[in-house]
Amino acid sequence: MLWKMESVFALTLLVLLAEVSFVAADDEAFIGVNIGTDLSDMPHPTQVVALLKAQQIRHVRLYDADRGMLVALANTGIQVMISVPNEQLLGIGQSNSTAANWVSHNVVAHYPATNITGICVGSEVFTSTPNAAPVLVNAMKYIQSALVASNLDRQIKVSTPLSSSVILDSFPPSQAFFNRSWNPVLIPMLNFLQSTGSHLLLNIYPYYDYMQSNGVIPLDYALMKPLVPTKEAVDANTLVHYSNVFDAMVDASYFAMAFLNFTNIPVMVTESGWPSKGDTNEPDATLDNANTYNSNLIRHVLNKTGTPNHPGIAVSTYIYELYNEDLKPGPVSEKNWGLFNANGEPIYILHLTGAGLVLANDTTNQTYCTAKEGADPKMLQAALDWACGPGKVNCSAMLQGEACYEPDNVIAHATYAFNSYYNRMGKAPGTCDFNGVAAITTTNPSHGTCIFPGSTGKMNSVGNITAPSMNSTSSAPPVQNLYNLGSLSFLLLRVLICSIVFL
Fold first, then answer.
1. 8 Å CB contact between 316 and 15
2. Which of 386, 392, 478 is CA-nearest to residue 435?
3. Residue 274 near residue 290 (C-beta atoms within 8 A)
4. Are 358 and 381 in a shared domain?
5. Shared-domain flag, residues 32 and 153
6. Are residue 288 and residue 261 in the same domain, yes or no?
7. Domain identity same for 238 and 353
8. Do 179 and 227 belong together in one domain?
9. Positive or negative, the Cα torsion across 456, 412, 430, 328?
10. In the structure, what pLDDT confidence band is assigned to residue 359 with cuts at 50, 70 and 90?
11. How crowded is residue 192: how many other Cβ atoms within 10 Å of its Cβ?
């Protein structure tokens, strides 16, 4: 009997430890990235996922529940927050069966292969789609009920992102309160979040706060730059010092919830960032400022310092956003919030020394030139011949028996030649084009013993961002057939033709 009691005690202790570990892990601060799709040349979902893996991004938020993205994200371990678009809110908020159908198609069909951890029901509904606000909480409850029916409510949390503009009188934070006109919706919503253990989701944009302050907010305060104590903002009621807009707004949201008697709902930031380019009336939308803000934000979140009034409490944050979106309407800044171009090239190199292994684009100049997905095989062959001829690339590594001979197809060999030329030209602008069949990527295309020029020798376990699979085949003649022809006149003719093509 004693042995059995000890066994039961041991088992209970293990369960308790597991639960404690789960809570601790859940409270770990993380940096995620939003994935917008308003691009004229939107990468294929497999390319997007390859970029995420190469950059070690483990948390993403989608503005919808795109099937292609959810399939591509399967079996990657990347944690995914999906969304019910605002235009679907009225239907879901008025019909339990519509919500159940949405969960069935967009969650149950993909989970657990795709690691869905959250559902955003709409986005900034109060300010962007106010006519749907009356059914917002119903929509959240219906989605939650569908998750409960599928036994997924513990794994997947339901919430809705709010614009920080719904918080009034946000400084000093201790005086902040929600816009009272929304209380009939906000209070039931906060009750829902509290009862389900979900986060209050908040979109925080210090750039806009700075722009709209008419000089009241200093640029360094908005950019999260270190400030001497005399330049920090002080909450006169709590005597707490604030060195940046981000922390002040997070604490303001806590005070606004407390004003409504909600004191145990954690905050997560679903959007924050800084534009890298703007119109003439947006002089502070610059590469340097975008780099400064996002680098400081990432370090701040991952340092787990929390906020001045809630030290040590994680404020996980999703950066807005992965790509520059050239189809976004509005001012130039709207199109330039991305960390990367559509081809996977960093807009700027983040300053993340000491921030850990997140967003690897802080490794300076690690870019490669690869064959474009879907490029015409004959054009690839012509470009390959030019690179190995007039382009003066040393293509000996692709000869039969050498390290880069396999895989034996034009795509793999063209990628090696393009990248060699790109490196030989010092990665100068315009040296990775080859009549439109090449593109720059941040993923190392090296494989096996074939180490590409410019590589550190470390292999990536993911596929190339812009190039098709190195195992794909092509109807164009493999490059080694040209090498083995042994006909000097034929080779000279091919070189002459390619020289004319690329002039």
1. no
2. 386
3. yes
4. no
5. yes
6. yes
7. yes
8. yes
9. negative
10. low
11. 18
Q: Which of 339, 362, 385 lies at the terminal end of a domain, its last residue?
A: 362
**pTM of the predicted model as reported, rounded to 2 decimal places:** 0.69
Q: What does the alpha-carbon distance between residue 195 and residue 186 come to, in Å, rounded to a whole number?
A: 14
In this structure, the chain runs to a length of 503
Instruction: State how far the Cα of 135 lies from the Cα of 139, in Å rounded to an integer.
Output: 6
Domain enclosing residue 462, as ranges: 368-501
Q: Which of 125, 293, 298, 142 is nearest to 223 (CA)?
A: 293
Question: So what's the pLDDT on residue 499?
Answer: 42
CA distance 209 to 218: 10
Q: Hunting for tokens 């944009």 — which residue is that? A: 205
Same domain, 186 and 308: yes
Separation of alpha carbons 120 and 102, rounded Å: 13
Q: What is the pLDDT of residues 151-194, one digit of tens each?
A: 999 999 999 999 999 999 889 999 999 999 999 999 999 999 99
Q: Which residues does the annotation mark as catalytic?
A: 124, 271
CA-nearest of 272, 229, 275, 216 to 247 is: 272
The total domain count for the chain is: 2
φ and ψ at 33, to 5 degrees?
-140, 135
CATH number at residue 169: 3.20.20.80
Q: And the tokens for 43?
A: 């990468």
Alpha-carbon gap, residue 98 to 498, rounded angstroms: 59
Q: How far apart are CA 85 and CA 172, in angstroms?
A: 34
Q: Helix, strand or coil for residue 317?
A: strand
Q: Where are the alpha helices (DSSP H) in 27-44?
A: none
